[in-house]
Amino acid sequence: MSALGSNSGRSGSRPASGAYSDGLSRSPSDVDSLGSRSSSRSSEDIRPVTYRTYALSSAMIFINELDREDCPLRIRTFVDGLLSPTTVSTLGNDPSPSLAPLDAVSTNTSLRSTAAALANEGKQCRLKEKAEWMDFARRVFSVFNRPLLYSCQSRNFDVRVSLGSGSHLHLSAPKPDLTFGLAIPQIHAPSLSLVPLVELNDFYGLQPFSSPARPDIAFPFLIFEAKTDCGNMVAAENQAAHGAVKALAMMKTLDDIHRRVGGAQASPRLPVVVICSVGSLYEVFVAFDLSTEEFPTSMSPTAALTLRPGIHLVEIWAGKVDYAETMLQLQLLLHRLLGWVLERWQPAIVGILNTVRAATAAKAPETAQA
Question: Which residues does the UniProt record annotate as the domain DUF7924 (predicted)?
């Protein structure tokens, strides 16, 4: 089992015995009891499965239909960074953390104590209501309580954007349990202030806010959907998937504007992270837009017939976080994600916004003269 104890992305199959990162070996029947996909589903599972099969697929949204090793290089590189056994973002309040050896953090007494305390809280939440599980989740994600970042709970994604040519008519409106994005405004990044973003919306149609009526969070990078331990993981994944599509589509509007103004460099096609939970079972996905040009060069005949372009969610980690070691692994993953957001995501967005604003300012005199 790897340092983060994950399975490496499933194509509709359950993890092998021992793939869950709670330090315990499991038989297939044990895995089913943890909320994994079972070959014989109960009646309460039929609606979520049907919704995925027909509504999501018709919108070109696919969950676990691509193996991790078949993902494009840009996604594999990103995932390897999150699951790296050698590096992790350092702790502290520095808005631009550097990378430090894993051992320097994983053996940190404070972090291990925090993970143990969180795992114990997870045990106390068993058979509790959704509110208790959400309180627990907010403490799990407290690593993102940083000045440059912002989160909101149960807010509608009513931004009018979509990706791909599929039909979104039958999709439920996204309303993630938690959404994490960039805080607005940011003192050290004037481009990430309300007035410039609204101006770019008026001028180019930029869509930075998941809810335009509440412009306090921009460009979400993490979507979280939770169910109680009596809930359904397939339903949680379905609900989170559409939110991820909206988040990717918001980034696509920024990329399109960058191309229109003639950006010197291609915009990075950044992914979005999705985390779903059923009780203490947490799953981490990477969501990204897959084009036909990025299809793996060697595929099985079945994969070659079924793989389609669109938005793909690929599972990269799963574990029962009411075990201290598993919670530590998840915390390490979240710290690595924090480092990526502050070192790659936010600077990339600010750089593109600066380019667009400069190009717009340069065109203003030409427009006035014309």
Answer: 165-254
Q: Residue 252 pairs with which residues in a beta bridge?
A: none
Q: Is the pTM of this model over 0.85?
A: no
* Within-domain flag for 360: yes
- What residue numbers bound the domain in which 319 lies? 28-369
Which tokens sit at 151?
């989160």
Contact indicator for 8, 316 with CB cutoff of 8 Å:
yes
What is the domain count for the chain?
A: 1
Contact 337, 307 (CB under 8 A): no
Sequence length of the chain is: 370
**Rounded to an integer, what distance in angstroms lies between the CA atom of residue 352 and that of residue 294?**
24
Of 201, 189, 248, 197, the residue nearest 222 (C-alpha): 248
Give the single-character DSSP code of 314: E
Q: Which amino acid is at 210?
A: S
Q: How far apart are CA 289 and CA 61, in angstroms?
A: 9
CA nearest neighbour of 79 among 341, 333, 312: 333
**pLDDT, block means (10 residues), the chain with 370 residues:** 41 39 40 38 60 88 91 93 64 36 56 94 96 98 96 89 59 90 92 94 92 93 97 95 93 90 74 97 97 83 79 96 95 94 93 91 60
Q: Which residue has the tokens 């669109």?
A: 310
Q: CB of 284 within 8 A of CB of 317?
A: yes
Are the CB atoms for 114 and 331 separated by under 8 Å? yes
Q: What does the alpha-carbon distance between residue 356 and residue 352 come to, in Å, rounded to a whole number?
A: 6
d(CA 208, CA 19): 38
Residue 261 located in a structural domain? yes
237 in any annotated domain? yes
